[in-house]
Amino acid sequence: MNTGAYTPGGPDPRRVVQILTERSAGAPWRGSGYRVSDGAVLTAAHVVSDAASVRLRFVTEDGGTAELPGEPVWTDTGIDVAVLRIVDGTGLPGGPSVPPVRFARITAPVACEALGFPRFRLRRDPAATERAGSRYRDTHHARGSATPLSYLRAGLLEITVDGPGHDPDHSPWEGMSGAAVWSDGCVIGVVSEHPEGDGPGRLAASRVERWYPLPEDRRDALHGLIGLPAGADALTALPTAAEADAPEPDDPPEVRAAAARLVRDLDQQWRKEQEQRKVHHPFPLNVRFRCTPARDLFDHWENIREDPSATTAAPLPLDGGVTQIAAVHASVPSGRLVVLGEAGSGKSVLTLRFVLDRLATRKPGAPVPVLFGLGSWDPSTVSLRDWMSGQLVRDHPFLATPDGHGGTLAGALVDARRILPVLDGLDELAEGLRPRALGVLRGTTLPLLLTSRPDEYRAAVEGTGVLGKAAVVELCPLTVDDYGSYLRRAAGPPAGGDPDKHGWKPVLDKLREEPPAPGAAHLGAVLTTPLMVSLARAVYSDTPGRNPAELLDTARFKGPAALRAHLLAAFLPAVYDRAPDDRAAETGRRWKPERARKWLGHLAADLHARGTRDLAWWEVGLTVSRATRMRVIGFLAALAFGLTTGIGNLPVDLVATAYGPGFASARGLLVGLLHGAVVGLVFGMVYGRLARGTPVTPSHLRIRLFGGGREWSAPFGRRFLLGVAFGVPTGLALVLADRCVVAPLGFDDGLDGGPLGAVLLPLQLGLGAGLVLGVMTRVEVPLATDTAVSAADLLHTNRRNVVVHMLVWLLVFGIPGGFAAGLSQGPVRGVLAGLVFGLEGAFGGGLGYGLSFTAWGQWVALARIWLPLTGRAPWALIAFLDDARRRGVLRRAGAVYQFRHASLQDHLAHDFREQHPSRAPVPEPPATGQAS
């Protein structure tokens, strides 16, 4: 069988039909078909010729069948196409409403697929006795290729597939007739026959574009029944223009390798995220979209179709469901599509499906779909190209590798147009930045998918104009038929297996039978979005003992707003009353709901104060006042250096002087306090100065002590001078503390070296600090291409870097100091002095540097110490965040976390500010020119 790429969003198995035709004369017919609209099934005309009765057999999701009556309402033997009406649609597996089907014509060979009931799938039912009905036909998913240049005179498509074994009495494909043939999410034909002379691996299909020579009234009837576009020019052309015109990739090898690695990373990341969000459990919600009727929100169809010669152009067929979003985007010649939807309407689900489907069908050299949260972009200060490159490096550190032309692999991918940006949340930008961002996008021809809330998008368009060449679709509200089975089946079977005892049954019956009733009207208005349906599922379907009938209580819930607030408030207790998975049980970590709510509320308020949706570990605690942060980091640096110095002075004074333990202990305490205070003050002030600028971000470098390919780089000189400029003043401050405080108090041990020592110590500290920082440029290399992108992995990498930094400080200060002491005072005192100097350098310089200059140090000081001490975060914060992700409270987007929806973040932040007004994070005033 042809193993080319097949587009997800092709045939929906719940809509595939086996057609059983009893004829007026002769043996019955068996065929296949597809439910193309709410009440119509598309099949081949010869399947229902001379029909006395027609039965439509659907396969249910539990492997059973649902058989319904049907009747032909439109047939044409010339093109061998028929449309059947579903006489009674009660109990349809796909629900009473289904997304429309999109039709296409092919202009070159394409991959294709069809799902039907051929004879060679005839099976014996092991549970049945030897009687009529003991045999059944199972489905066959035929996948292969279609070519437009065969069977031209017959008006058919040649479908090449792996053929079944030879049957001398019957065609093994008998019963496959009428199956819809799909390519790239569109129907391109209907299986018509098996030309036996062409072998078992060939099928012929009635091609869609050959249906248009029909008389106008017949064609109009077909349009009304199955949604066939009114004119052949409105059919999607496959392969798409972008695919057909795409040149063979001529990127440098490193760019091709980076793109391939990025595809693997993204596919793995988003598939895990899809499973974690239970997007397809027990099955996908029927999120539908349609071309927006607001004509002032999108460009001329001639521009969208990229047809410079056209004076008018027909609209593109853009209506569809979540499984068709990739195909709809591919059908837009410009490759620019905007998706509008209210809060919680399914934009995140749609973008996730789009990314996964595009990754599954991506061809070498094609752009890689990457999801970007627009809320972190400031278009007034950062170009789109630089922002995208920065986000790629943040989430995929290996892309920070130099590309050999003065840039990074991330920038090379963006410049080569090997990134297809999926820009999520224009509405998440500050109001004043939205028109500017849309203006930047208007200035590009970059294919993209953009999402926004409708009102915010309209306001941006009014400020800057429509997005050039972009089509616009809007998400449709969910109906009870869209989510009824989803909620019922997520809860599992009722006690005793009696469907009438299912907790959701009276609620769903009320919503269907009495929608205007107050309780049903309120709940129906709430459950129009996937967010609220998923919350209802978590609170009532996934939690034993909860009765969803309480949602209809109008005395308790006065309207939709009260119901939404209830579901948001009940969500955390519901998910924290149970373990998320076996891993949580193994680790033994369980958090009480009230504590989890408080901690998550603080994190949500922290994000709200900083105006972002991205929960990055290196930014946790940044809303703590800068003065407090300076004191915390200064204190920790002072503690590390002071303890090391104070304890280290004890053996030095006991071995190198005639003083006793009492003097050594008192001097060690005094020197530890003074030196710690000096170093703490220096590092606290340095951090305070750095904190005024851009927040420190994680290093995307790792330490490699061995291996070739490194050269002394330009940063060595700058790093060396930085170390000297930092070390010399610190050394002078320590000399002044010793000479002006320690000596006058009578604790001079005679080891300060006199005037020469007062000169040498600052030089030693300056040269040593400069050498350390310079050496680090020699051993730092970009993260390896197999480095993971999770928050925990990036955190561990940065922690290892700081540990290596401390070891380098120990060696640089310990070896020269020990050698000098050994020459003058003997080897024993030399080893002892070297150890003391080294430890002081490691904990004073190395750890102090890590606390003040690195994201890991800031994380330790604030998220691992200060926030837990003040009760605003758990001690094991990363474990808590991972647990919240497994419970569905958070989701992961690259190297950062996000709340599963902005509404949940806003709700938690609001509650936290109301309950803990004195502890609510407060943002610092924005810098000049920054949008607020």
Summarize, please.
The chain is an alpha+beta fold and 932 residues long. The chain is 43% helix and 15% strand. It folds into 5 domains: 13-239, Thrombin, subunit H (Beta Barrel), CATH 2.40.10.120; 253-475, Rossmann fold (3-Layer(aba) Sandwich), CATH 3.40.50; 480-578; 583-620 and 873-915, Arc Repressor Mutant, subunit A (Orthogonal Bundle), CATH 1.10.10; 626-862, no CATH class.
Features of this protein?
932 residues, Thrombin, subunit H, Rossmann fold, six-stranded antiparallel beta barrel, 26 helices, 43% helix, 15% strand, disordered N terminus
Q: Could you explain how this protein is built, in words?
A:
The protein has 932 residues and is α+β, with helices and mostly antiparallel strands. The chain folds into five domains: 13-239, Thrombin, subunit H (Beta Barrel); 253-475, 3-Layer(aba) Sandwich (Rossmann fold); 480-578; 583-620 and 873-915, Arc Repressor Mutant, subunit A; 626-862, no CATH class. Helices cover 43% and strands 15% of the residues. It contains 26 helices and 27 strands. A seven-stranded mixed sheet has the order 18-17-23-19-22-21-20. Strands 1-2-3-6-5-4 form a six-stranded antiparallel β-barrel. Helix 14 (530-541) packs across helix 15. The radius of gyration is 34 Å and the shape is elongated. Mean pLDDT is 82; it is low at 1-8, 582-588, 708-714, 785-789 and 925-932.
